[in-house]
């Protein structure tokens, strides 16, 4: 009878040991998750890596949630509530960080793209008034022409990001959602303006050339005025104050230098 009881105890403890073995996987990811630097999540921008994190932490959270807290085993009654309470918050916390990071990436990307698109649109809406402005305007138009294609790619990235957010039913503020859809409209407007200006580039260049001609005419007129002042007879008159003549000529020379 005594041997039978001992054998029964041993069998029950073997069952408990086998039962505990089922939690080895949970123990392993619990240790890994506890040691994880959360910057690995918050600084990640690759969507495939972020998707892998969502799959991983959702799976881990589910694995712990499905653990039965109370398990009778013959003469033994296993209670693992404390184990579950200790392990569940770890993958849950990491999942929360991923779900916070994804909308943040979208918000920051869309905000930066919107500001860039609005600045570019407003800048190109203003017609240049000076030769220097025309040079800057044409250079800016060329840079924006290349940039809008890059912005298309960045919008595609944001689309994939928000699709991922929707797939995993992650909360996003209405303001962020509206900003995302509004940026699409802003980028379309920018595309249309760039296409229009590039089609009318020859007109801009013609106005640029006209402005250069005006600047040259104004420069010639200004130089002629300086020459006339420099040839005034009083500057070489013997009775003229030498210091006054030198000061005047120096001022005229400075004006001439500014014309270069």
TrEMBL record:
InterPro entries: DHC (IPR026983)
Superkingdom, natural source: Eukaryota
Protein's GO biological process: microtubule-based movement
Gene Ontology, cellular component aspect: dynein complex
Entry's Gene Ontology molecular function annotations: dynein intermediate chain binding; dynein light intermediate chain binding
The protein's name in its UniProt record: Dynein heavy chain tail domain-containing protein
Organism listed in the record: Cuerna arida
